[in-house]
Design goal:
Strand content: 15-25%
Structural class: alpha+beta
Oligomer: single chain
Strand order of the largest sheet: 3-7-4-5-6
Bound molecules: calcium ion, zinc ion
Radius of gyration: 28 Å
Distance between the termini: 83 Å
Length: about 250
């Protein structure tokens, strides 16, 4: 009797790494072994290499499946499967080790034999719901137990401090803007800095007009400070924040 099918240790390690980094990820479209119909139809990396029609049979005693599917939904709003794939491609092209022969995602395939160039994949499944990873055809990839460094990659990609935006209410919601912000302000997605600049030009007619470029820099800060001056020439703001008083003054509400 042939040995029970097993996913290669290498692909098992890769899946474990993804699970460690994305513990809440959706697994609905995960898969590793082909169903029986699939196994009879055509050769596939999802078929075991002793009892199935596998793409590659290495002749050892393990009945290995050399492909794994990972659901596209990593359940992380800051990091997508597309980012993961791009990271992997960059890594592979740099000559760093990946235990794969090829991988497929969203109608594209990257193969070791093609130098990991991006090529169109025209197979029956577009691979939108999951990414497919085929293990390389050697014992090193079969037995690989390492980690590729996904955790560090995700941390690096997701800690480029997003600008915090606080919403305040003035006839609807307007954000609190701060110097250094640029349109479109993340989390707001509108031209709020440009709006402030345009209104400053309107409320400060004697001043040289601000460039309405959506970049809250020194000129805009000076404009806000100027707009907040009282009759005695004293400003109630240094101009670095457009909060409720500033919005009220600039909008002349
Ligand atoms: Ca084998
Ligand atoms: Ca093997
Ligand atoms: Zn697959």
């Amino acid at each position: 009797m042939a040995a029970a099918p097993v996913l290669t240790r290498g692909l098992n390690s890769w899946r474990a790494e993804i699970n460690e980094v994305f513990p809440n990820r959706d697994k609905a479209s995960d898969g590793w072994i082909g169903d029986l119909a699939h196994q009879n139809e055509s050769s596939s990396g999802h078929n075991p290499d002793i009892t199935g029609r596998a793409e590659y049979k290495d002749g050892d005693k393990l009945n290995e499946v050399r492909a794994v599917d990972i659901d596209s939904d990593l359940k992380n709003p800051k990091y997508s499967m597309e980012q993961l794939i791009q990271w992997l491609v960059t890594r592979a092209r740099a000559g760093l080790y990946v235990p794969f022969r090829y991988f497929i995602y969203r109608r594209r395939i990257w193969a070791r034999s093609s130098g990991w160039t991006t090529r169109a994949y025209a197979g029956p499944s577009p691979h939108d719901e999951h990414a497919h990873f085929s293990g390389d055809y050697n014992q090193k990839a079969d037995e690989w137990t390492g980690r590729l460094g996904l955790a560090a990659a995700v941390t690096k990609a997701t800690t480029s401090t997003p600008v915090k935006v606080k919403m305040i209410k003035i006839n609807g919601s307007v954000p609190e803007l701060r110097r250094g912000m640029k349109d479109p302000v993340p989390g707001v997605g509108s031209s709020y800095v440009k709006r402030v600049q345009a209104y400053l030009n309107w409320v400060l007619p004697g001043e040289s007009p601000l460039k309405v470029d959506g970049d809250y820099g020194q000129a805009t800060q000076d404009g806000v400070k100027l707009a907040m001056k009282d009759l005695k020439g004293k400003s109630s703001s240094d101009g670095s924040v457009v909060g409720l008083p500033e919005w009220n003054r600039i909008y002349a509400l």
